[in-house]
Fold each of these.
Amino acid sequence: MVQPDHIYIIPPGKDMGIHNGQLLLMEASRYKGAHMSIDYFLQSLAEDQQNNAVGIIFSGMGADGETGIRMIKEKLGMVMVQDPATAEYDSMPATSIKTNMVDYVLSPEEMPVKLIQYLNHPAIRDPQAETDFTMNQSNHTHLQKILMLLRSNTGHDFTLYKKSTIVRRIERRIAFHQLTDYVDYINFLRENPSEIMQLFNELLIGVTKFFRDRDAFEALKNKLYPILAAKKENDPIRIWIAGCSTGEEAYSIAMLVIEYLDTVKLTKVPKLQIFATDLDPQAIDHARSASYFSNITSEISPERLARFFIKVNEGYVVKKEVREMIVFAQHNLIKDAPFTRLDLLCCRNVLIYLTSELQKKIIPVFHYSLATNGLLFLGPAESVGTFGDSFSSLDNKWKIFQKKEGTAALGNMLDFPFHVANQNNKNLKIHLPVKSLKSPMAETFHKILLESFTPASLLLNERGDILYINGQTSRFMQINSGEAIFNIHRLAKEELRYALGNAIHQAWDKKDKVEVPEIKIKEGDQIYVVGFRVDYIVEVPLQDMLLVTFHDYGPVKKRRADKGKNIDPSRQGAVEELEKELIYTKQQLHSTIEQMETSLEELKSTNEELQSTNEELQSTNEEALTTKEEMQSLNEELMTINLQYQNKAEELTQLNNDMKNLLDNTEIGTIFLDNHLNILRFTPQVTRLFNVIPGDVGRSITHIVSNFEYPFLEDAIKEVIEKLVGKEMEVSTKKDEWYNLRIMPYRTMDNFISGAVVTFTKITPVKAMENKLTSLINYAKNTVNLSADAALILDKDKKVLVSNKAFLELFKLKEEDILEQPLLELVHNKWKTSKLDDLLDSAGTEEIFIQQEIAGLGMMGFFVSAQEISKDDTGKTLVSVLTFKTKNSE
């Protein structure tokens, strides 16, 4: 059991987990060379401690811990990371920060105070139970205000998300900012719009990884491959990953399908269409980039890494051919149209965040989206709920379902999209517990009344479909053999069918009640008299429905003959019945004639409309033919243009490859920046000088930690962009490596300035040589100054490197007049002699005498000797010394 004031260290080659607060050691079960012990423990901590988990990442190498903090955030825990500026090794902290899921970035000294403040906040220390929250009407009102702020600023409505999840994430933000209650947080949201986006991102936190629940993917593979095997060569493979987050799940599915296609031999490979969607635009951008940290080696086998990934800097990028198989798009399950004819729909760990009412509406959408025998792949804590009749369960543990044929679930598609306006009020509000006002006695009494004393009745819609039945209706309806259709026009007894249909039509047409008093129906050998009434309902929520109430008057009784009259009783009864039937028939005939006249008028009007429509259709058909010819012509043009674009794309791809190889293989580090100093592209050599990764493209270079000690770099780049004049300087790194830094304006083909190009050329060896040369020159200068004779030191080009004071005084010269100047130029132009040419060419040790009139000094005579100091490999003189002696010095 974990004890206070103790530090637990994982032994080498082991994994440590936690279960019920108890630490467990186990053998590492990772791929060779990919032991991510921190990720493993943090994931275990998140599962065990849920929202009580706290992860802190300190200095360290690599990307271990990045997945772990994602899992902690998914379970509503808290994450702290050491400020990379204070870390000896900043790789682990920097990688964690790039997840955008870190709560605090602090130095180690600042962490204890923040940690204690956060954990001691009432929202964290004593979290409200969900029942307590729902009973708090005040908090309910504040929650609605927060959801309104989110909807108005982001366009997304979280009303249909589970309230418990939303409440816990809001309370986390309250604790993070050390606020008192919901009122303070609402005011904070209004004053800080950035916090609204932060809360939005918190609500959308979707954590995934490659092949999450590895056994689940193995089970999916066994169920999916037979469906793919049944595909014909021309049939596409269509897959939808709903809630793909940062793309790991989509690429995992793609790998499984590609591995299958590699094993089958088909003349034509089926077209693979994978749609991956999510509500979070940042997650979609990450998924499109397909760039992941090095810790994915703990999730993916070495064979798959080599097959599907490219190693780039300190991470991995999914290969282009895999990326092109997947279409990533922002999509809202609640209101955006679904993809259809799917062989696989993967929606893992999304439904758990939605209310049960919304889940009941989304599952039929999934059923509609799937093709025949299509698979539905859900998360371990999710299910199809009450729609078990629409799906076959292929794997109960890993929630793999197969679509059943039928239309039972399709009726729910009528409510799509599921806008908040379409939901009942019960779905929009957090209900307060309401105590029932009915006692068991009253309920039983009402039940007896309904069953024993109310007439048989039916609730119908306009078409006559039966929606509800009350009482015994067997005398009025009969179920016939054949297809089961629950419609009154098909189920009513023959004697009632015409009268009932006519009454239903009149009631719907007049929006009023229609009563038929007496109709005789035969049941066995007995004749019964019945009546019915059809009522049009205007009360909500049964508005626009029909209520049919039946009345049973019992069997027909034989009437006794009147005394004193010699009339046949049976004949008199028959006459009365015939009279009644005649009156009823006249009424029905009159009603029918009125309906026929109305229908005739409608038919005439419809016929005129149809004639007009026919003329319009003929005109439209002519226009369509013309449009078709134009479209054919346009299609040919588009095909030509498309071919040109394909050729251009191939040329651009080749040029891009050439440019990439050129930049990657040169030893010159290059960074391309836009006008706002955001990174557009960089070569691999730059990673030695700046802590950049491919994911930093688009970030400002001022946010990137560099290995230089020149804070004025930002100002220098801005000056080049503004003045359009390049800069060049020599800079050194913290490791005393020297680079030639060159900043030039970035010019487009149209000669517009669109940023800057910064190049770094390593000159450490040159700088070392320069330092040595400077030391040698200083040493030589000090040495020749000790000589009483006039002396010069020349380089390989016979330029003056050093002159001593005796030489300057002898020939009345200034040092700046001759340094770095060719000596022969001085001899030829001022001394007017060429006697030194041979001596300088041979650099021999013999001494020559020169007597020459020198301007400003008169006739002078002096001895000159030359001596080599160093040679190169070819024997050419690199440095030589000339000594001048006058006769007096002799």
Amino acid sequence: MASPPSPHLLPSLILTPTFLLVLLLTQTITAQSYSNITQGTTLTAGSSTSSWLSPSGDFAFGFYPTDAQASLFLVAIWFESTSPKAVVWSAKRDAPVRSGPTLQLPSDARLSLKDEGGNEVWSAGPANASAAAVLDSGNVVLTASGDILWQSFAFPTDTLLPGQVLGQGSDLRSQLTDSDFSGGRFELAAQTSGELQLLPLAIPSGNQYDPYWSIDTNGSGFQLVYNESGSIYVALTNGTLLNVTMASVYSTENFFQRTRLDPDGVFRQYIYPKNGRATASWSSKWNAVAKVPADICHDLQSSGAGSGTCGFNSYCSSGGDQSEVDCLCPPGYSFIDPERKYKGCEQDFPPNCKRYDPAHFNLIPMDNADWPFSDYEHYTNVNEDQCRQYCLEDCLCAVAIFWDGKECWKKKLPLSNGKMGSYIDRRALIKVSKTNNTSPLLPSVVVKKERKALIQIGAVLLGCSGFFNAIFIALIITKIFGSRRGGSQTFQPQSSMSEFNLRVFSYKELEEATDGFKEELGRGAFGSVYKGVLSSYISTNIAVKKLDRLLRESEKEFINEVRSIGQTHHKNLVKLIGYCNEGTHRLLVYEYMRNGSLMGFLFGDIKLHWQQRVQIIFGIARGLLYLHDECSTPIIHCDIKPQNVLLDDNFVARISDFGLAKLLRADQTRTNTGIRGTRGYVAPEWFKSMAITKKVDVYSFGVMMLEIICCRKNLETQIGEEEEPVLIYWAYDWYKDGRADLLVENDKEALADMEEVEVCESSVLVHPRGSVAQAFDAEGDSDAGRSS
């Protein structure tokens, strides 16, 4: 892979942490002009009231038509006063709505998108917001008492605006095409591991391939900042700033600006003059003042997987300026879909090696072109004529690459990562048909003879008696289903699992998907979890839980887990895709959560914002409510802790790992069993020989809720330092003294929202149904709780 371009250090710009903090506060609303949107207001797609404007009229928020007929709409934010208009943010962009749906601002100021039947299909913001506004910055905010509770700037799609920050764990994803707003083939990811990367993606799964541009911050915390002066840089936590675009700074007073990850994979910074708008255009290359990478055709070269910048069997060409990348088909090929060039090119002649005749073909030379992969033969010490001959005589050879007067590679379809440019010192020899007939490999007379024979056979079958037809059909069905069973006789799925619509995997399939169980994501009491990739399945990224022990109890837990999770479907639970029960192998296959566990965002260098943490608390609570009260068979998790809460791409909390769950029958509300769980989260009931109910999960959730509020571990000892008090005792003592603010004393966002902090804390420490409250009962249970 080509080396990523090196970032540029801004000269003489090393800032103190205090000054950097001030510099990064780019999302404040105090200096912006805005007016509240009236609660109860409704927008209707396709009507005269389909959007709200910012005070200046420069931005609009509402229903944006995605086609010329205005039959499909996106919930979006766009530049309203430019021509053409330009979308800068959208919700549910993979599923535009038809005219008729409404976007409402109910009395609780939560944005709510409803379909024609009145069913809510999308919402944004907490239920306690009191106002909404479209700002002149292009940011849509929901507020309460002047504080932002939700903002579109925190959930970018493919565009950043001046004043916007992309934090670690966030990303931009390009549109599929300029006319198709759905998620595209490229991503700008601020990785939690410490890199800012541009990566190609697989469609439709979104699987990431090798990055083609990156900035490595050496594991330091960072943010990508597009400041209100028009500069774009990476700000490290130590105060260092790394420039990203190296563009001349254009005044935001004189120019509208946006930086967009375009459908061709290039991250471009655009300007649009606020005067002379009639001659300006967002798509003009003059208006693209900077970009990374400098030449995506040159820089994007994966390790072999994926098609590259353009689609399979095509090649990439660029002039090195700010204009769009050009994807072209080689001679003898045409685009599968000219409107969606990313789908690639196909041969104008269908191959048929059974009737292959080299005399029907020529090789057309293309200088300075190459497809670096897909080669299957390599010859040395040959001349160009020999290279041509070797390819012509081989039916599988689609292209031959000749280099250095002596090297020859034969390549087969599909061709990937194709590119053309002066930096490529190679000659491509493209195999094409001489005749340009529809099928030079399959003469029409042969087609007619075979078609006539099939018609004759069909006529005979139709003329036979129903008895012989039935026998013939039965033989075909037996053959089909017999061949399918033949490849899967080494393992038998549990007959009771078919009703749960789970996929049955073979052990070999999962071994290949995980590259021999190479990348371990985590380890638990019953086994390890590995990352995997299934290229043939829509959920490409998977997490495979491999149960290492083969004791009877382990197999029982495995069966319980498959049965329980197979019946659970909730947005705050990790989805089980399938399982393997082959011989001695017991494995569970889950959807992969790229952001990992909640623990990494509570106790590491990168902390989630207060409102993100509040939404995570709500999400976990909803998931537990579903497990306890809404499942057809209620489930006690028994091991609620941050490690077992995963975060999806949008930082939505997803409860995982029901391997320790004890199922409750519909007529059973409690059960006695051995102690389960993790030290620090185990409820007092476990130590008192009391009946175990769903309240043990409530206690564990309460402990974890305190950790989320305070971003501090419940049990924590620093080596070489005095042991800190147990979090629940410390929190309870301060809460009794009326000093709940000390629990979040270093969190400015939480301190600005003390009402919600106190609600969260009181629900943990004094709620009558919570096991945590029971542990601190003034009548004496506190000692029992502390002894646990």
Amino acid sequence: MSFLLRFLMLFMPLLRWPLRAWINTHASPSDLEELSLASDKPVCYVLPVASVMDWLALEVVCAEHGLPRPQLAGNRMPSMQRAVVLALPVGRSRERSELHRIVSRGLHDKSFDVQMVPVSVFWGRNPVKETSLFRILFADSDRTGRLRKFLIVLANGRNTLVHFGQPLDYRGFLDEDAAPDTMVRKLVRVLRIHFRRQRAATLGPTLSRRSQLINSLLADPDVQHGIEQAARRENVTVSAARSRARDYANEIAADYSNIAIGFMLRVLTWLWHRIYDGVDVRHLARLRATTHDRREVIYLPSHRSHMDYLLVSYILYKEGLALPQIAAGVNLNFWPVGALLRRCGAFYLRRSFKGDRLYTAVFRAYVDVLITRGQPMKFYPEGGRSRTGRLLSPKTGMLSMAVTSALGGKGAPAAIVPVYIGYDRVMEVNKYFDELRGTRPKKGESMGDLVRGSTKVLKRKYGRVFVSFGEPIDLQSYADEHLPDWRQQMRTLDMDARPRWLQDFVAALAERVMEGINATATLNASGLASLVLLGSPQKAVAEDEMVHTLSLLAQLARRSPYSRDATAPAETDGHKLLAEAEPLMRLIRVPHAWGDVLTVESRQAVLLTYTRNNVMHLFALPSLVANFFAHFEHRDRARVLDDAVELYPLLASELFLRWPLEQAREALDQAIDGLLDCGFLLTDESGQLRRPEAGSNAFAALMSLSRIMREALERYAMTVMLLSHNLEAGTVERGRFERQCQLMAERMAILTGRNSPEFFDSRLFRNHLQTLVRVGLLQQQGNKLHIDEALRDVAEHALQLLGPDLRQSIAHLTSLPHLEDGDAQGSDAAKTASAG
């Protein structure tokens, strides 16, 4: 480095304090343990350019985080006592000789090793193209003079990111047969590629001004064609149609503002600490590797709260990753929130494009622009927020546009990243409950609602937030596997058509995304306790039983994990888990001489179903197996597996379970092993599976586990029993039959005292029928369903899992005449029951 740097080294103690007073640095990754720096190897930091300010920022971050402090290399090698810093050379400079010295030492001394850590320093993070004198002077750039660098630090010092790359495998990189000069050139080339990719991963692509973007949309050939068609179809001038297209583009397009991002960063940092106890983020290292791989990244998160919109962007920004543009419903485009979200990267879409071809053309062109430029994007595959906590069936319109753009060769290879977002407690859950119950209709968002809602929200704590980035789906590789001739198909695709092969491909991909979201779920204490409490018949559990069951379920989640990405509780002590969950769940303690009983108010029990539904899929297979022992003491393992595999498709489609049907038996077999290891099941002398002794804590835990899937199995039993009742007729009308299933579930809810509106959700019965069609037990022709004779055996097996009272109730209800004129009365009665 230059003489100036060595001179400043003498005054580092004096320079550090004024620098700390001015700049505000963020380290990326936030958890520097991701670097896995070895304590027995010296460290060499490598900067992309020789810069006094970059070096000082690095020194400040190392001091704050306890990393080895960077010192100038000079003529000395890095050692355990002295970490050094150098910059990539420009021509035949001193830095080249410093790098040459380190490489030569490694070639001649086989015992010498060093951890070379590439470090990128970003002063401000504005990706907008430099179009004004202000931006030219103050926006960060790859290479700047000293005066401009000073101005950049002056303008952007409050928003400084220091990113540490993974240490280079120094010994693995060296080629003992190569000359030192050759190795230096190779090392410089590798590091320059790293820094270039890191800059792209952090800032994203360079963005044009919004006016330029809108003009480019109107110049798109498909939009031009859409304008001409609209003019002919509506008998208006081309100028009028073009003006409408411009209005659409203005309605849709984001308007990135670094000032708005900085403002929202401060607001959200305050907000998270105000209402949440922390944000738990998982699998960032894998995501970082994906973004660094020069890929277009499409984030597809679950959607449970309005907080989701900025939560993922907040995390990505704090972690030094490029902000995505976010697809937001046009209902959020109200003053002043709409403009602020737009400047934070939101682009707006209407709920339905149907009937407006010009709007569709403009929106598709906008998605094409994002894909072509490599701009990360985010949208919600469910379309809207889940009111029940379950993942909703995916909407495929937006995904179809992204797929056709990415596979059409309009940008870099794309990676789809499923994202799980979970909460200890969702702030809108009361509103969701009222909407499900029918006492509060859905309505558009407004500033008044926001102000009224925020005053309540800020007075409460909602526990922790859990965000987990799932296994990325390489879109091209996925297409190669599931649509081998996709390249030829995409070349001949008419953008105004949606051929069947494309619909099927996108639908399968959407299912895969939903499975990926659930595969990376986080199991928290309140989710576990909700599973136990809501599984008890009267929503009341003895404290000692709760503690023991929590401990066993936590052990099961660790011993038999749902997937490698699912996160089980770090704590398996039932007392600690209960202490964490109790205030969030608002449990009521009923004192008793034999020990406290834990319960909740009726309304709160319904609200907790949302928390339960977030994580119930993690125990789907163990719970299915446990149901075979709810009414039988002994069962043959092979028979249990046979019957469970028969029922598996129902649970898989309802909960987006990750195993394909051909892997279900193996997965269920592993679930049985987990149940045996944790004491939920035992084996007798003959090798048969048996349940623990009645009255034991293990038996109570097994019954609690079985009830997790009980409602799903009951709904399934109702469906197949009603179908088998129609076997003589051979066919049923689909729409009418779905209504009969819903009415029957409403009736069961009243008879059993269930305070759960989701129990008779019509979408669940619709999903059951689709599953039965898929496995061949039903054949659909138009609106008619033809029933296969094999359904009778399935109905008998499903009934075996239910208790005698439920079996009798279902058998009685299926024998009654089902009259269409009872629909309204049944619905009203069910709402009255659920209002409880």
Amino acid sequence: MISLGPLAFAAPWALAAFAVLPLLWLLLRATPPAPARIVFAPLRLLQNLARTPETPQSTPWWLLVLRLVMAALVILALARPILSPQTEISTDRPLLLLVDDGWRSAPDWPQMQAQARSQLIAARSEGRDVLLVFTAAPASPSDLSFGPASNALARLNAHELRAWPPARDVTRERLETGLSQQGGPERFDTIWISDGVSNDESDRALAQVLSASGPVTIVLPAPERTAIGLTRVGVEPDGFTVRLVRADSDAERPVTLTATGADGQALARLEGVFEAGEQRLDLSASLPLDLRNQIARLSLDRFGSAGATHITGDRWRRPRVGLLTPETSGERQPLLSDYHYAREALAGSSELVSGDLDTLLGTEPSALVMVDNARLEDDRLTAFVEAGGLLIRFSGPNLATRADDLLPVRLREGGRLFGGAMAWEAPQRLADFPDESPFTGLEVSTEAQITRQVLAEPGPDLDAKVWARLSDGTPLVTADRRGQGWIVLFHVTAGPDWSSLPLSGLYPAMLERVLSLSGGADPTQPQGGAWGLERQLTADGLLTDPVGQSQMIAADQFTQARASAQTPPGVWSLGAASAALNVMQPGDDLALMARDLPGATYRTGDGAIETRLAGPLLSLALILLCLDGLITLLLSGRMPFATRNFGAVAVLALALGGLPQDAHAQGVTGIEQQALEVRLAYVRTGDARIDELSRAGLAGLSRESTRRSAVEPSTPAGVDIETDEILFYPMIYWPVTEDAQALSPEAAARVTAYMNAGGLIVFDTHDGRASGRGLAPHPGLVRLLDSVEVPPLQQMPDDHVLGRAFYLLTEFPGRYPDTRIWVEANPESSGRDGASSVVIGSADWASAWAIDEQGRPLAPVEGGPRQRELAIRFGVNLAMYALTGNYKADQVHVPAILERLGQD
């Protein structure tokens, strides 16, 4: 191979043929066109005339140049030129293509997939055998055999990322076993498209095995595209904290984190910046506990992946609480004891377990509750709190007499008595809760009176530890952080001896707020049985139905389980309990892959993709050959009509050849052709990958609509929303990117006129999240909708016409399932026959519609063929809805619809 800057030649010896071009020039000039013979009768009269020298007419110079250009193109094609070459080419060795397909590849997967596709296309053109291996889902030894590159290309196009890290040690073992069993080649080239993150010593062992069979090239992602992990989520009285980690640390890197509820509603957004040289970033959010307890998922916005997503499960909703039983009940009746009141108050907001300390710690509770009679001094309590547990204590005569170290504040000896014969003060009521208290928002009970309490020693840090006070300012509830956990002290008894608080409805509400701090402990685990996968996390950080087979996890092993192919991350359930298995665990870190692996060379995959130019050059040479043949016929007089109009024919041919594909209908047949044809359109975003996927998606939908219905759309058109006329398209698919900008006033007026005229715009944020006003704000969508007069929106009701415009549907998935769809709230008032002009979703429908003419999918879909079929049916419904409007809402169709539904 010879490289000349960005251009290289795989067969440079073919360039020697350029030396023949001068000889070809001379040969063509010496060979004139065949002369025309004309019989002239009186040749005898001219026989004795003096002869004059004759020179035959030569080939025109411009035709010579055309033929030389054609020859030069053939020579260049034979030299196999490569634009932006990435690797050295070995035509006599097979290729092992190793691709990291774990969650860490999600931020850079389109680029990684393009790099892999480029290598496979190159191998196909070279006729080399290829073995494609994915490290997160390694094949069985029987599948590790080299074969045609076209088969590997089909596998790559249909492959989906895995939600767990790559198993490079398993890949190494299976490669060694499989290649030896299959009789693989002794020497082969290896290209390893890596996620750039280290897997400890398994990287070195894998590289050593590969380098023993040939050169190894490792393709690394750009530093700004390496994965970010979310390792720890901690609860605070006024919100929560998170810790993010990254592998690189060279430059600043801004991040945005969104906390969403189970319904997809955004509850909080956190923004921060990784400083240069820092690999960790701690963020915190202030959030009322009522909202914080609704959080079901936290995930990064731009670098979303399974490892940058944290699922809360039941941790923040119904924790397991251990209630220490008193050693003796004294002379009190059981139903009047502190233990009974504490148990009844906690039963409604927790999974309550009672017993001694050994029994409770064996159940791995999130919180422990200790009444005064159950007071216990044990080092295991301290260890429990410091490890992230929550300890709730109640005061009483024992604590008032003798304090210990496991308290949030220092206490005075003895209690404080109100309203008795020996007391100087009247009983106290509760003061309003401070704004920074977890009890903020609860209504203070006017009936609750405090007759006795234990007092805290004054100190400079006392105010920061007080969550509730009496009307005279003395503490009622104090709390302090100890290690990773919390100690909370009620300065009154758990029963009604010292106050009437346990008799009010405020008491269980306050305990429920305190229990919300128990999210810092380990997940709650039942003692018996096994956990089963209920909802699976995808590599992009979305929850979906389980795919494939997963192993059950024994209850006592769940806390040690890690995300893998056998135990995917997601929501696991055991009976009525559910717990989350996240990819990143507290204490995990990310590190860059070592740059000294055995026998490996490195390059960055953020440059231009390797492009083979031999095919386009030969195609251009063939076009010139056809043009040369046409010109030869014209000059020889064998096309009389074309000869007389040669100039017009040439100009017309050049004009038609220079028109782009989408311009033929506009340039040749004009606006009338647009008005007569049914064509779906998509908005060009400027991102080549998104635009190509939109084109392929609408092309696939047009073919399926033609095959299945009376709608026969022609080739879809790409439009520039700022400059192109859009009135002639019944439906426009608009993929919205996060950096989408607001429209100009002229474009906004054009879009508004289109919607008022009956057009349908399908906005797709293609990120799998709930989108629309008031939900999971998508920055690009917000900017677009703010610049256009969009009518009020609502979530699409179950009886909307889109569910029966052609197919009867109850699900409307795309690449992602279970996403929300928004339509016009009151289309009846719009004057468009009750049809909505706007459909907003995030399911990435174009990816599911993208099917070539042979029926092969061009992009992966999470739910497999069934989900793709439902997405295509919804696309057909959209096309019918755009053309027929609210036609199927007519009551005349109800009997037929009910009959199809099987209802009498």
